[in-house]
Design a protein that fits this description.
The protein is α/β, with parallel strands linked by helices. 24% of the residues lie in helices and 28% in strands. The two termini are 25 Å apart. The relative contact order is 0.15. The structure holds alpha-L-arabinofuranose (AHR). Alpha-L-arabinofuranose binds next to loops.
Length: 481
Amino acid sequence: MSKIVIDTNKKLNKISRNIFGHFSEHLGRCIYGGFYVGETSDIPNINGMRTDVVEALKAIKIPVLRWPGGCFADEYHWRDGIGKKTLRKKMVNTHWGGVVEDNSFGTHEFFELCRQLNCDAYVNGNVGSGTVQEMSEWVEYMTFGGISPMSALREANGGKEPWKVAFFGVGNENWACGGNMRPSYYADEYRRYQTYVRNYDSNHKIFKIACGSNGPDFEWTDVVMEIAGEYMDGISLHHYTIPYANWDNKGYATEFDENVYYATIAECRRMEALIKGHLLLMDKHDKEKRVKLIVDEWGTWFNVEPGTNPGFLYQQNTMRDAMVASLTLDIFNKFSSRIEMANIAQTVNVLQAVILTENDKMIKTPTYHVFDLYKEHMDAKLLDSAVVGGKVSATTSEKDGGIYITVTNYDYSNSESIEISLLGLAPQMVSAKILASGTANAHNTFDEPENVVPADFNVNVTADMISMKLPAHSVIGIKIK
Ligand code: AHR
């Protein structure tokens, strides 16, 4: 038996909607084939963007999209991706499969995608192989509304109005694929590059993000915060869930036993200690706690599906991934007073994708359905609560007078009885939806797209208590009025 106590009168901070954000790189079939099929494709599209994918993401209210990488960002030269498509430069995508990148999806296409998704843009700039001038001119191209060489170029390419860049990343993983820099060198480069990330629009100040650490590399955060903390709004953190953290053999997405399942859960739960550690170091240099933590890459990373390009990072997605998603989002919610944004890697066809496509077919993964259950927490107030007992995790929030609770039972094989005590509220109307399946490796396929989907669920309601029995490896969303 697990017990959850919630004080419905004790509202804490707002949970930023951007915690439920996404990341999409020029990697494998994420952009090409995933989001973008081109205007002349037989697959239904609007201005080249797949209608099925856009509609599915709008349904989970995707708040923000990070682009163009990842490692690709520090090799990306934005001028190659503007102007007439037939004249755009072709390049080799050295990081991801050595395939030809024809640059048909560039800056204008990215903002068209954000427009269709109704989400904010998080653009990641190139520090590793780009120049200060290149980055500075990209920001001018995207955001300047007056008369200038870059705004004139944008207009000549059909972009009359400037766009809003909500977040701008100054480099990515500059400790490795972004230039193999040491922290003090990067920190000085950050100071220089960010100087020219100008705020041309006083109504939309760009939130500047410094490249942060690789998992537990606390020295990186310490040094970068000390040297450059005052020049940033956020610093990033990357942590991938790999069973036993074994990069040489990550195991397959759909093939695992109980031990590997729990090894995966343990790796995902390491996120909490990582966040705590990095926040301590950030606070050492930023007593006001002004700088936010941005977890702009997280998710499971398994071996690629047999027979697929190893550079494309295409993997299936099961209820184990759903558990990783809900447990990780609970951790982000818990620290939401300091986390402004998180971006799952990656939205379509790559790593812990929420959507998989195959030609004209599209399926929603169990991870998609977790984001669907969690969307009610966006911009809601976190409520003070305590969880005691088994393998259970929860988030409770309040919005517009309604209470929303998500509870996960991550036990591999046992169901769990849950009692939720609500202090200060006698529930009137209660409804619930559950994501559950008979086996932990249950997943959706192109032949069986509805194998794992949320279903209505009955919970017991008394004057001040809600109780239920949650099946093994399941997650529930409960709405209370
Ligand atoms: O998400 C895949 C890759 O993982 C990204 O390109 C990189 O930033 C990270 O190492």
